Fold this sequence. Notes:
Elements: E1 2-5, H1 20-33, E2 37-41, H2 54-69, E3 76-80, H3 84-93, E4 97-100, H4 109-116, E5 120-123, H5 142-159, E6 167-170, H6 179-187, H7 189-193, E7 200-201, H8 207-213, H9 221-233, E8 238-239, H10 244-259
Parallel strand pairs: 1-2, 2-3, 3-4, 4-5, 5-6, 7-8
The structure holds 6-hydroxymethylpterin-diphosphate.
Amino acid sequence: xxxxxxxxxxxxxxxxxxxxxxxxxxxxxxxxxxxxxxxxxxxxxxxxxxxxxxxxxxxxxxxxxxxxxxxxxxxxxxxxxxxxxxxxxxxxxxxxxxxxxxxxxxxxxxxxxxxxxxxxxxxxxxxxxxxxxxxxxxxxxxxxxxxxxxxxxxxxxxxxxxxxxxxxxxxxxxxxxxxxxxxxxxxxxxxxxxxxxxxxxxxxxxxxxxxxxxxxxxxxxxxxxxxxxxxxxxxxxxxxxxxxxxxxxxxxxxxxxxxx
Length: 260
Ligand code: HH2
């Protein structure tokens, strides 16, 4: 899954896709590199990102989404939003899935997705500290706690009428998790897979990788590929990354190792 951030302020690629045509160019390149999903988001979740209105999110998202959907690419498109109003507009344009980092915080999201019969990613996000932060969030065991909370969100989605196969789970690396939490969730991703839903894994260029390899975000695609291999080996279904070409072979190796 290739990330298309339509934001001026995302932590690794903010401002790169200012026009719909830029999004189409990058989407086409991602598909040529092997991406089968494109994830389009218009609100950054990095620490201290400015809060934006629904209208600003729609204004950034819809022209680019329409252009990407109309480009005839061999890929499906998910929309990264926590707002049902934005999700509804995106689904009306033809988006194929919703990626909700807040796991149904908007009460209108679950009924909307149930009616639309599309996949929704429910991501784990503990506490107020988003990407890169884990300070102040206490876990008895990060793996057990994340699994229990994801299972709970899955049950809420099921009760709202979302089909089981349309509920995808994501441990939410960086969202209320520090370095060691990210490593533990990567090493033990199989526990999330064992919940029985498709698992999305989003380590791309995140701070735990930056600190391991001592490089800024843009220098972390090889490190991203390394952890994606480990995730694929444990059965991750979708790898959400900024550089799908760098990750595709690593994911294939991981998937092959899983069968060895
Ligand atoms: N991470 C980010 C945003 N959305 N969605 C899922 N399902 N999983 C993730 O790990 C995830 C996500 C943060 O990364 P990015 O989109 O690159 O940054 P920003 O939030 O600054 O736009």
